[in-house]
């Protein structure tokens, strides 16, 4: 009778302890000198360690408390939790549980707990998982918030080492593809921008006329840029100040032929090699100047 009473008291104590005080991990592995706090599930586990006993899955909750998700565990970490092939931190890791990821408890709950999650089976350090009533509550919340009709699809599961390697390789391939697309776009922009420069340079030597937009009879700085780009089907605002918002901004170090460079009260078309073609003034007409002849406000890419 005394042994039955002691067992009942242990189950009640353990059930309450499991549902309280989940620990939060700030690293993916444990330290050699780690000491668990003397509260909640940690205290129960410490008692088991000192007696060198393990809590069997079917025993750590009393029968009347068992629910649909009470055999589940959730990673209580901020980065990730290693799933290891053996219940030691020296063993090979076979998968990772990310914050809030779910698993099924399939072995005794001791210092380490054996779990299944996704395609991964292995051991996790018990301090870094939520189990018992807290796991039941979390699972219910996740399922309720999910739009999936299948409750199992509401949870996120572990990523195996092989799955991680495949994902990282796919991400690297995708990044390389996007980089090549961007490089190709730059090459194409440079090619089309050079066409703008070649067209604009045909009018070097023609007169500067304040308020003018004629490439042959005379244009001012913004009228020159506006008329050159109109030839390529690009509509620009009339003044140099308004052109500061046209297209998209790039740095001067990224400037390509055909970009327009805006200054205080002036604008020109970048030719490359640090030069612009522009309507300079009434004395010099349409000609070439160093791109940095005065302070640059912005460089705009229109193509």
From TrEMBL:
Coiled coil: 158-189
GO terms for biological process, alphabetical: proteolysis
Domain of life of the source: Bacteria
Record-linked InterPro entries: NLP_P60_dom (IPR000064), Papain-like_cys_pep_sf (IPR038765), Peptidase_C40 (IPR051202), SH3-like_bac-type (IPR003646)
Keywords, ordered alphabetically: Coiled coil, Hydrolase, Protease, Thiol protease
MF terms in GO: cysteine-type peptidase activity
Residue ranges annotated for the NlpC/P60 domain, each copy included: 190-303
Cross-referenced PROSITE patterns: NLPC_P60
SUPFAM superfamilies: Cysteine proteinases
UniProt record similarity statement: Belongs to the peptidase C40 family.
Protein name per UniProt: NlpC/P60 domain-containing protein
Organism of origin: Dorea formicigenerans
